[in-house]
Fold each of these.
Amino acid sequence: MKKNRWKLGIAMGMALAVMAGDGRLDVSAAANKTEENGQSITGKDSERVKTARHIPIDISMKIALGTEGGSKEDENREADEIKYIENGQNEGNAGNGQMIDEADAQGAESGTEAGGTDALGEGSGSEEAEQGGTAVPGENAEEIDAYFDGSVFVGDSIMLGFRNYAMKRQDTFLSRMGFLAAGSFSANNALWEVGGDSVHPVYQGEQRQIWESISLMGSGKVFIMLGMNDLNITGLEGTCEKYEELIGKIKEANPETEIHIMSMTYVLKGKEAGKLNNDTIREYNGMLKAMAEENGWGYVEVADALADGNGDLAEEYCSDGFAHQNPEAYDVWVSVLRKYAEEHL
């Protein structure tokens, strides 16, 4: 009897090894791992998890996160996202795979991940853009890159895309940056208490108020891009009021921290959704710039650098037929940020 049990144990071990070799894993385990990192899978996502049980992990995770059907580039980004979740290092995203709240009907079908980009005016064709932001002209290149030591970038899914871009370029100055970004994040819900329905970014495995996470990170500079999820809810005046209130709380908790507002980027022509249209976004950015000047904060102009001749988001920079952006757009962010740093040294 003992001999038979021994043989049975070997057989079961071999079976498990074969299953592991095939890369199969119950998605519920992956879902539990996601829960441990401050995320939850609910609603339609929970149904996807049930459907995806016993499917190879590389496919089932994308189904569970709502990304199946995206491009090869999107699959690579999602693979990075899964790796960071599983390693407990996903400190910048409380809601992986989420799209813009008020306008996700315009872009969610593509299954692409959030993107966001900073820009340099004319030039996606610059040497820096072509090389993914790795080249820094001039003798003060190191000084320019060091400007971002101890900085943190705060935002919604547009910023989350920049974080994913930066994760793949850790041999550049992008490794100097911290990120507090989450899908569906806004100036409005950033002021909510942390709870079951909140989408506050995760830091050190836990959702916190932005100003608390910034304190823990010891950030000397905060770059903020918000508004995409606000305009259709609180309008121009209300969004600016919430924005200023949020920055006030950041400064109260971190009085020595510099504030730098980044302009909100545009959407594709013909893809407007209510107040989320480019004329309103231009007006909003003008109000943000005035608010920054009045309070002595920095202002980084990124939207115009990604615009086409009509003042809309250039199609070559868009990843989802709506507002999210691709790596080429983030190359432009890199150029804009370096130029901004050089001007503020």
Amino acid sequence: MKKLLLIVPSLHQGGLEKVCAATARLLQPYFDVQIAIFDSRNIAYDIKGIPVADLQLPSRPDKIGKVINVLKRGWKLRSIKKREHIDIAYSFGPTANLANIVSGTSADKWLGIRSYMDMGNPRKIRLFCKCADRLICCSETICREVQEKYRCKKAVALQNPFDMKEVKMLSEKEEAELPWSDGRILISMGREDSVKGFWHLIKSFFLVHAKHPDTRLMIIGKGEFTPYRELAVKLGIDEAVYFTGLKKNPYPYLKRGSLYVLTSYYEGFPNAMVEAMSMGLPVIATDCMTGPREILEDKYGILIPNMSPEEDFDPAHITEEEEKLAGEIMRLLEDEGRMEHYRKMAVERAGDYTAESYIERIRDWGK
């Protein structure tokens, strides 16, 4: 059995962190799996039974500190690789990739590109192309760009795995604690980050709520969301907007939703959106780089044009693109037949991203 080391900055919250934890669990029967983590505080994902090496080197804000961190992480990873006789080291995201490269050794280096934002640094992408034994991209779009722009033959696409049975089981494990007992709930999920475009969603929801007072908005994810809360107060919709904070099990909350809305300006492969689809939530998503178009294909959900990345918390300034999003939401909510159509299409599409196909591809590469 080959020894596989998964390298990740943390397992607190986020898409790449979630995929790393899922990868560890899924591959346990086929590889001797271990995880190397830069900072093991506040682990949010289930990695029970998987050996974890904590490098105790969390992120640092200063440039010199970042460089020192890369070297120290590389040195510690090198020791782990040699001591454990690692065959394959698979790193998730740019900082983990750099440490994987610096650590050297004869172990195969699989480097992961987890977001289109990673493509904004051509020097790093060239380095990854040069040093990787396999460059694993989370979407077909990213993979094609790496192959064509950087002439990288090592690039491959591997979409994230989903276990619909597990999602359903977890959704029934507990009850969601909500501030309302009724209403149609619009849901979005993600950490507090400007790239998620949540101010667009709140302003669009203001327009929807004005015509459909029974609607509610729930945003699931880590963060204080202070400017977003203040925006909701200024718009007079704060009692209809709920920020849940980080939920280790978000599925009971997704289960209560009527519609999932994604307003990100960038994505890699939006895990939360596919999880919502697996639970039968119709989807409206921005046609951002990358993920939504690849998943929805103008067939399994509704795509809208990408929205402005400039943060705007002025309650008096509602843009045309926010009005258009509100219009799409209302047209869908007002047509139960169309809602039912997209519920069925969402579940059908989510079923295409099976854990089995994910496992099969990695096992094949690891031979």
Amino acid sequence: MLEKVTNALGDVVRKISGKSTITEKNIEEAVEEIKMALLEADVNLRVVRRFVNGTIEEAKGEKVLRAVDPGQQFVKVVYDRMVALLGDTKTDLHLKGPDTQSVILFLGLQGSGKTTSAAKLAARLAKQGRKPMLAACDLVRPAAVEQLSILGEKIGVPVYKEAGATASDAVRVAKNAFQAAKKAGCDVLIVDTAGRLQIDEGMMDEIAAIKKAVEPVETLLVADSMTGQNAVDIAKTFDEKVGLSGVILTKFDSDARGGAALSLKTVTGKPILFMGTGEKIEDLEPFHPERIASRILGMGDIVSLVEKAQETIDEKEAAALQKKMASENFTLQDMLDQLERVGKMGSIQEMLDMIPGAAGQISESDINTAGLKAQKAIIQSMTKKERDNHLIIGPSRRKRIARGSGTSVGEVNKLLKQFEKTRQTMRKFAKNKGMAAKFMGQMGQMGGMR
């Protein structure tokens, strides 16, 4: 996530946090490096100036220069300024109660990921117990209606569409979708509108008319974070012409320079509500300014990492797994399940960015991801009996498993040895309540840090 700016700022933080004394010269040098990193990330010049001036003013105060740990104190100043830049606190959707219908209007340029984001948000709301409906009102882009229909079917959310509707029918379709959602008992209607390759009056007039017709509680701009400063200019124009309540940033990954995320709130005054972090339906995350600031500064984000883990395994499964670990009933099938759950949490790089101290220090290329795939292939090439009881896997079975998984007998032997060692370690851990309590306490302290 925002790899270039994270690496640059992470280096500055590591350099300054290790100093036992801080001078005005140290502060000026560090802030100059931060300024260059922000400018290279395509952050708005006015935003950079405000950030730099505020940081210097606060960091040169007696509190930092005479602090018990001035290096850490300076890092906190930078962190607090970064959080303020990103929006201070997380902003939630302002939806009405489940007995009243709420409309969310989506708008943005073509190619920003608007239609996919509408489906992602619908899936997220459905998971939270809401009853969403999607409205296909993008009648300009070829196949937009079909795309939304396919996504709606995939996530089990109804899609309102009208066969034969043309670009001039968008307002009527939106009105009819509102009535259809009401009739179907759907409490949230997400309206996907038409985008253009660039802003034009026709698009703005159409969106303004749809907004007037359906009276949305949220008017969200979907912006491509890879466009940097351009995304901020687009947001300003949409806000002036139509009025925005918030922004969803898509393609928020390591290739994005960061200019959009770091400039939007200051320039437009509108909060970032969500960020798209991948192609999968579940790759839409709430935007937590304090967590993103922590990641950008290379300080990790343990809270989000734990939340991701909790999403892939429920309490009953966790309790059952702990029981298995303690009684030595942990099998190769359980190991395969865990490997697959880790895969569902996102890319290895994304998880590394959340681990304090790992961002910029360990990259995905440093981890043997091919080895993890080979391990999965080996276990998947076993029979159910073999997965449930690894002790029956003799020489002939190992040869067959190696052939089936495209690996060698040596690799199969290595996996079985590792598995046996893992079982022993897990058993000790599960039975040692003191060790487990200590671990959970450490996790709690890390989760409570800000």
Amino acid sequence: MIQVKDQIYHLGLRDWEIRSFHGHELSTFHGSSYNSYLIKDEKTVLVDVVWTPHSKEFISILENEVGIDNIDFIIINHSEPDHSGALAEIMERRPDIPIYCSVKGVETIRKQFHKDWNFRAVKTGDTINIGMYELVFVDMTMIHWPDSMMTFVKGPNVLLSNDAFGQHLAGASIFEDELDQCMVWHEAIKYYANILTPFAPLIRKKIDEILAMNLPIEMIAPSHGAIWRKEPLRIVEKYVQWSDNYNEGYVTIVYDTMYNATKKMAGAIARGLESRGIKSKQFNISATDMNELMTELFKAKGIIIGSCTVNNGPLRNIAAILAEIKGHKLKNKVGAAFGSYGWSGEAHKKIHKELEEAGIKVVIEPISVKYQPDGGELEACFNFGREFADHLK
């Protein structure tokens, strides 16, 4: 048990081994953590628990450090199993203990565990006095589940933010200011890009609502990754930026290739961009982690995607990233398509259409090459890059 601030303690677990999350949808190269918090006031309050596979270890820590019989109530800010999984074992021992959660949280927890426990539904602005401190609840609907909420501990002024402002990261310290800053911030934007991007309009609105509550936030303690205790509003400011049609000005070129024809085209397009002063990054999708790539697409101003044609369409990984782009609802991006083919040649046309349907502003017609590109065709790809660059200025 690690002290976070006066009478607030970290009871969570650091998972050093995990390398994927949400099934196998999200890569976690630096592990993750399941941050549970204990508030020791006149009332002893447990805020969030841990993922089901770690329940027994967590229960052991809870019994040794606190004693389950000494807990007055539990707050579940979000019912996803990585935050609520150990709840079942606690409730086996204390089936009467009150559980505070959102209205949607009551519904979701019941459906997850098929139990009708002692639920107490709360909404934004509701408060509970626990002695010296007061707890203030803030609804966070659809950031990123319908039941999500935050709990602000008034007194020590700690925001227990659950999934918001988190990172999938297991570190030598639980505090952000004691960790490698490049790693923390990369994992923070990767987390945002891959999980929260679809909810950008809601995030901006919710942050404005929270700021209007004038909560004197001195620390932000999420349920994954490091706790923000040094100028914690820095991560809030980043969320404001990231939710506002964010980009870093460069172009991300994504391709898949069978015999390097499409790869050669990608290189020529990149050289054309560079000739116009536009920076770019190239990614062979088959050799790139999908979540790292999604982060690069989130940060890009321009997105250019290419594939050779197989079975009358793009290669499977290109089809997958196009679905991801559509699902994440990327904003303020311009795009284009390219590709090579042998006899039919539909891939570049389908990519063009998919980008348009995903809300990307496709600014030029796709370019294609049959079999291997010759010098003239590579020059055409170079000019394609130059023309695309003109739409970024």
